[in-house]
UniProtKB/TrEMBL annotation:
It comes from Xaviernesmea oryzae. Keywords: Oxidoreductase. One of its GO terms (molecular function) is oxidoreductase activity. PANTHER family: OXIDOREDUCTASE, SHORT-CHAIN DEHYDROGENASE/REDUCTASE FAMILY (AFU_ORTHOLOGUE AFUA_5G02870), SHORT-CHAIN DEHYDROGENASE_REDUCTASE FAMILY PROTEIN. Residues 12-191 form the Ketoreductase domain. This is 3-oxoacyl-[acyl-carrier protein] reductase. InterPro entries: KR_dom, NAD(P)-bd_dom_sf, SDR_fam. Residues 181-202 are annotated as: Disordered. The lineage of its organism: Bacteria, Pseudomonadati, Pseudomonadota, Alphaproteobacteria, Hyphomicrobiales. Belongs to the short-chain dehydrogenases/reductases (SDR) family. It holds the Pfam family adh_short_C2. SMART domains: PKS_KR.
Length: 250
């Protein structure tokens, strides 16, 4: 095949956490279309996960679904080990699984606070730790943050915003650890994007006037940015939290 026709991620192995639905499923699809073998985790949506694997395999790609609750440290480690065993290594790790538990500060349950940090912050860190022994120079680590790291637009999102701020600062910190090993570490920070997490018409009506382009984002638009960061063209980008928000922060 002429080199210009070889998909950019041909021969690469990827693990995407939270890949059964929404932005994660779009990332899984896109990395597979770009030629990577893709393992992904999910916590509950077994049928959707199986359907996504079947869809990718029907199109000639390689995919594997792994049930692993990101709140469970051992499950995260086991998922990384399973992906590394299946594909012999991990070239691309996308920490995408995330949850949003909203509440005003007065009533915020400390158990919800801990769960938010376990899934949105601890799990990416543990997955990175577990993936590093399987990752060589040229490796790519990408974590899904949020524009809420930079702007809390609405009440009830203080803890979610904290977790996404932590993703951005973790990304910068890890860049210093892993740059010398030739591994890039970046975050993507989506603005309001049409997924189950952001599905209420009331919520979309509130955000629409704040979007410079007059609409919320689509999952595949975020996946395009992740694919770029996962690919060979992004070799000089590390330590960045790249915003993709239709002008929400502008
Ligand atoms: N949508 C937005 O407007 C928006 C904006 C900024 C940032 N983000 C971020 O983008 C990422 C994806 O969000 P989304 O909108 O695509 O959310 P979503 O539609 O709710 O999908 C979440 C995905 O994460 C998985 N997941 C949730 N909890 C998990 C857990 N404990 N363990 C393992 N997997 C788990 C879900 O798996 P199951 O199907 O099994 O539940 C699903 O695949 C999140 O990090 C979110 O914070 C979203």
């Amino acid at each position: 095949m002429p080199s210009s026709l070889i998909p950019p991620l041909a021969g690469k192995a990827a693990l995407v956490t939270g890949g059964s639905r929404g932005i994660g499923a779009a990332i899984v699809r896109r990395l597979a279309q770009d030629g990577a073998a893709v393992a992904f985790t999910y916590s509950a949506s077994s049928e959707r996960a199986a359907a996504l694997v079947a869809e990718i395999e029907t199109e000639g790609g390689k995919a594997r679904a792994i049930r692993a609750d990101s709140a469970d440290v051992d499950a995260v480690k086991a998922a990384v080990a399973e992906a590394a065993k299946a594909f012999s290594r991990i070239d691309i790790l996308v920490n995408n699984a995330g949850i949003l538990i909203r509440n005003l500060v007065d009533d915020y349950d400390p158990a919800d606070f801990d769960r938010m940090f376990a899934v949105n912050v601890r799990a990416p860190f543990i997955a990175i730790q577990a993936a590093l022994p399987h990752m060589r120079a040229g490796g790519r680590i990408i974590t899904t943050g949020s524009v809420t790291a930079d702007r809390s637009g609405f009440p009830g999102a203080s803890v979610y915003s904290m977790t996404k701020g932590a993703v951005a600062s973790m990304t910068r910190g890890l860049t210093r650890d892993l740059g010398p090993r030739g591994i890039t570490v970046n975050a993507v920070q989506p603005g309001p994007t049409a997924t189950d997490m952001n599905s209420s018409e009331e919520g979309r009506a509130l955000t629409r006037p704040l979007m410079a382009i007059g609409r919320v984002g689509e999952d595949h638009e975020v996946a395009s940015l992740v694919a770029y960061l996962a690919g060979p063209e992004s070799s000089f980008i590390t330590g960045s939290a790249l915003t993709i928000d239709g002008g929400y922060l502008a």
